[in-house]
Amino acid sequence: MPLALTTLRRRAKALHRNLRGAAMAARAVASTDHPLLAHIIPIRRCNLACTYCNEFDDFSMPVLTEEMFRRIDKLGALGTAVVTISGGEPLLHPELDDVIRRIRTNGMIAGLITNGYLLVAERIKRLNRAGLEWLQISIDNVNPDEVSKKSLKVLDRKLQLLAEHADFHVNINSVVGSGISNPQDALTIGKRALELGFTSTIGIIHDGSGQVQPLNDEERRVYDEMKSWEKSSFTRINAFQDNIAEGLPNDWRCRAGARYLYICEDGLVHYCSQQRGYPGVALATYTREDMRREYLTEKGCAPHCTVSCVHQVSIFDSWRAPQHPAPALQAATSGELVQIK
Questions:
Q1: What is the DSSP string of 257-320?
Q2: Cβ distance 321 to 253 under 8 Å?
Q3: pTM beyond 0.70
Q4: Cα separation of 326 and 278, whole Å?
Q5: DSSP state, 247?
Q6: Nearest-CA neighbor of 336 among 310, 293, 298, 299?
Q7: How far apart are CA 296 and CA 238, in angstroms?
Q8: Spatial CA neighbour of 219 closest among 268, 252, 186, 173
Q9: Which of 132, 171, 270, 323 is a Cys-bridge partner for 298, taking CB atoms 3.0 to 4.6 Å apart?
Q10: How far is CA 324 from each of CA 97, 114, 186, 306, rounded to the nearest angstrom?
């Protein structure tokens, strides 16, 4: 297809995405009775083993496609606005395209978080045809090391393929913090993302136990410079990270379990990837009453939370409905990682 037509098609799709996003944002302000974002896991297995990550294994089988359809249909029935597919590595699921189509059939925005290793031109085109609307790759360093193999040196060709073929929005997230030996790498990664026409964000990485340490002077310089590059949009609502960078708590109302749902490979609803086990209710039986309860439940782990997506969706309700503590969740008040049994 000629370059001019390709550009026109991409702009039309971007306009459509933005209009849908604006409509969903308006609905989010008008009503608190539906999830704004759900992360769903179609496979826990990953082809990498980053040392800071606790969200993968090297043996799990994919969730059956029919079961994924039932979970997505339930999210649709709950009125969910956006469904992001994560993992593990979701591209390892053999029927991922059908899962994406099911999200779109339910009228929800479809997103994907991947390490990018399995992307080739034809795979990207299949994602286009399935109706994927946005994709994020986190790149941790320029050259692979013992902490992470998600490196610009390895993935740059994949980024070029995305620039050539993707009709969906692409965001490249780079990180500073625990285990990242060269914080300047984030600047190199961010600049490369912008050169290719993508958006770029910066995150503060936690260690293998889900904890985060204050940034040192060099890390903070890199963090501040990259934040100055970020374009204004909902996914760049991340002022909460300024306190995290200083090792300070945030005073906010976490709406996990209500506005944000994390659905693990077993089909259970959790607060997030770092607090698995609460509420630990099967999505199949999750109700609006469950969401209303969790909407008002204060989470003890919230002050030092680093999970950006939960912060972002909770902003819609930061001004209303004060929360109260739940005695049954005392195990979560320490902020320690809770694993699924």
A1: TTTEEEE-TTSEEES-TTBTTSEEEEGGG--HHHHHHHHHEEPTTGGG---HHHHHHHGGGTTS
A2: yes
A3: yes
A4: 11
A5: T
A6: 299
A7: 23
A8: 186
A9: 323
A10: 41, 36, 39, 21
Residues in the chain: 341
3-class SS of residue 167 = coil
Can you tell me the distance from the alpha carbon of 44 to that of 61, in angstroms, rounded to the nearest whole number? Answer: 8
Token readout for 193 is: 């993302």
| CA 322 – CA 69 distance, rounded (Å) | 35
In sign, the C-alpha dihedral spanning 286, 292, 297, 299 is positive
Q: Give the separation between CA 24 and CA 22, rounded to whole angstroms.
A: 5
Spatial separation of the C-alpha atoms in residues 49 and 149, rounded to whole Å: 8
**111: Cβ contacts below 8 Å, ≥ 6 apart:** 82, 83, 84, 85, 132, 133, 134, 135, 136
User: How many other CB atoms are found less than 10 A from the CB of residue 97?
Assistant: 16
Residue 185, both tokens: 């790498």
Q: How far apart are CA 59 and CA 36, in angstroms?
A: 31
Helix (DSSP H) and strand (DSSP E) numbers for the chain: 10, 11
> Of 321, 263, 244, 322, which is closest to residue 75 (Cα–Cα)?
263
Report the DSSP pairing between strands 260-263 and 268-270: antiparallel
Tokens at residue 322, please?
Answer: 């004060």
Q: Name the H helices within 150-302.
A: 152-165, 185-195, 217-229, 240-246, 288-296
Token output for 317: 């309700």
Chain Cα centroid distance, residue 50: 17
Give CA torsion, residues 179, 113, 265, 314, to 10 deg: 90
AA identity, residue 63: V
